[in-house]
Amino acid sequence: MSDLLSRRLALLGERANLPLLTRCLHGIERECLRVDGNGQLALTPHSPALGSALTHAQITTDYSESLLEFITPAEPDPAQTLADLDKVHRFTVAKLGDELLWSPSMPCRLPAEEDIPIARYGTSPIGRLKYVYRRGLAVRYGRTMQCIAGIHYNYSLPEELWPLLKQAEGDPQSDRDYQSARYIAMIRNFRRYSWLLMYLFGAAPALDKSFLRGRPHDLDSLDADTLYLPWATSLRMSDLGYQNNAQSGLTPCYNSLDSYLESLRQAVSTPYPPYAEIGTKQNGEWVQLNTNVIQIENEYYSSIRPKRITYTGERPIQALMARGVQYVEVRCLDINPFLPLGIDLVESRFLDAFLLFCALQDSPPMAGDECRSATDNFQRVVKEGRRPGLLLQRRGQDVELSAWANDLLERINRTAELLDTAQGSQEHVEALAAQRAKVANPDLTPSARVLAELRERGESFSQFALRKSREHAEYFRSEPLSAEDLARFEGLARQSLEEQARLEAEPEVDFDTFVAAYQASILGLISN
């Protein structure tokens, strides 16, 4: 146990400081495909009954018109966050008619690549920009890859906690810079230890064969329609399909906020020759926003991101540069197909203890070797995490996954106990005990349970997923929203449609000029 971790835990455990730990904030973004009653991708447009995907704060679309995204507000109690998410699901299911929400992360059997509908956001300049960005993703990575869904977990510690730690440690930085540095240090620890989350919560060991479109692969066949790896935890987070693209050389190691932002600034402003060959327009139509390594910051695929709420018209890099890191977005979580929401309170309580541990544990800068081993450990666990005796690299030495996992859980138990003390419960320690059981018995992990159910029932991946999708739809329909909640969501839908109409009624702006100004906002940052 590091002395620094012990000192920080002791400081936060003082009676005057304990209430701070009841004020962490949690938000969830859950993506899921819309499918028809037979489990085929729904090719219908985003329903106006759900509101405008451009302006609705809680119900939008991600890459495809068929890929819904549900967003909760930030709440101090994750039980409330999950209750919010539950209401969004109930409202949506009530408006979908015969369509279903697809239960796992890996997609249903998809139509031809060109028939997967890209999300549309109307005729306003920002709506068109969002559409062109997605056309660029299709050009760069293919539409099929963009239909994978996941859960993003947003987490922040209370603003008052950082000055307390800063003062205790005699750190000379400003409050803002100290807070950003601590979040970046937290992200470094997340990179070191996030393989554990993939073992415990990975739920994507199999997929529909059609997903690979006939490309070569190293997967095994479970049946005529299902591919899998016997020890995999999360094929979603593996390198399937994302090899050989411009991002492969983009690996920020998060040793400072400045270095992270610099790597992103370079990526959004440096041309990539294969994209330059395609160009930004074909036959006079925009096909990508630019020909750079990434079009915008959000295109960078990472398992965790430092975040700051943006002002209207502000880019994520600008917000982070101006005001520092406010929270982190964990992006590597699979949707658990056994759960109606894809996540439950046990997982959330453990994530809180895990993230608090990452924030308080000593986190020295990562050299290149450690960066590489963190990436290698993560990839090894997503593809063979349940393999008996699997070895990972810790400080240049081989260590068994189970031994390292138990060691980490022992240390995370300290933060779980502290959270329970602050909140007067046992829920975090109990959530941690549930994870210990998975380390002792890999058959309890979601990935093992998926494969066991496929084998026991003789189902293909898509048959299993469709059955679960129907079960979840019945769960949500069995208890409709209250009249009050229904009226509130219908009001939000109407307001969002009115807001989109207002944006589209504004004086017309030349789109080429609009895109150039958007691009210049980053170029200006680089030259300053």
UniProtKB/TrEMBL annotation:
GO term, biological process aspect, one: glutathione biosynthetic process
Glutamate--cysteine ligase domain segment(s): 10-381
Pathway: Sulfur metabolism; glutathione biosynthesis; glutathione from L-cysteine and L-glutamate: step 1/2
Annotated catalysed reactions: L-cysteine + L-glutamate + ATP = gamma-L-glutamyl-L-cysteine + ADP + phosphate + H(+)
UniProt GO MF annotations: ATP binding; glutamate-cysteine ligase activity; metal ion binding
Keyword terms: ATP-binding, Glutathione biosynthesis, Ligase, Nucleotide-binding
Pfam families: Glu_cys_ligase
GO cellular component, one term: cytosol
Record-linked Gene3D superfamilies: 3.30.590.20
Top EC class for this record: ligase
Domain of life: Bacteria
EC number: 6.3.2.2
Coiled coil: none
Family: Belongs to the glutamate--cysteine ligase type 1 family. Type 1 subfamily.
Protein name: Glutamate--cysteine ligase
Name of the coding gene: gshA
